[in-house]
Specification:
By secondary structure, this protein is an alpha+beta fold. Strands 3-4-5-6-7-8 form a 6-stranded antiparallel β-sheet. Strands 1-2 form a two-stranded antiparallel ribbon.
């Protein structure tokens, strides 16, 4: 008879929510609450904008979009159509001693260690309770399983003007 943990792992595998690594450890691929996964080949998507956050996060970010999101951004279409996916990659913001050695004063900052990847997926039916958006956060390719963190995504995005369709990032000209 199968133990409950093994049965849950098998169920997750069948649903596509996790895989088992070569070391035999479960690797969770879907976020809690929304079931969002890390899109395949997202690093090849179009750059929408870049951002820097000082203070607590102290990071730099690249915001990418799939073709549906980019088309909506370029046309100014809001709300975003279903199928739009926006991905935010973040790295520690740090000085570059190598680059600064070339300049007369420290002035070059670069991406340091990666922190996380956040994914927003538009599906107005599936995510109706969260304004049509589902959210996921990934560290080292693994979905963060903190339910409170995932619930806080909508809480934060919901503070934006409805005309922005709960999206922080504007198209960078």
């Amino acid at each position: 008879m199968m133990r409950a943990g093994a049965l849950l792992a098998l169920s997750a595998l069948i649903l596509g929510a996790s895989t088992v690594s070569a070391a035999g450890r479960e690797r969770v691929e879907a976020s809690p609450v929304y079931g969002v996964t890390l899109p395949k080949d997202y690093r090849h998507w179009t750059l929408i904008s870049v951002a820097q956050e000082n203070g607590k996060n102290n990071d730099i970010r690249a915001i990418l979009g799939n073709d549906i999101a980019v088309k909506a951004y370029r046309s100014g279409k809001r709300p975003f159509p279903d199928g739009a996916v926006i991905v935010r990659l973040a790295w520690r913001y740090e000085s570059s001693p190598r680059n600064d050695a070339v300049f007369p004063a420290p002035q070059s900052f670069v991406a340091g260690a990666p922190t996380n990847v956040q994914v927003s997926v538009k599906d107005s039916k599936r995510f109706a309770a969260s304004g049509g958006w589902g959210y996921g956060q990934f560290e080292k390719g693994v979905a963060n399983q903190d339910v409170k963190l995932m619930q806080s995504c909508f809480t934060c995005h919901n503070k934006l003007e409805k005309s922005e369709d709960l999206v922080f990032t504007a198209w960078a000209p």
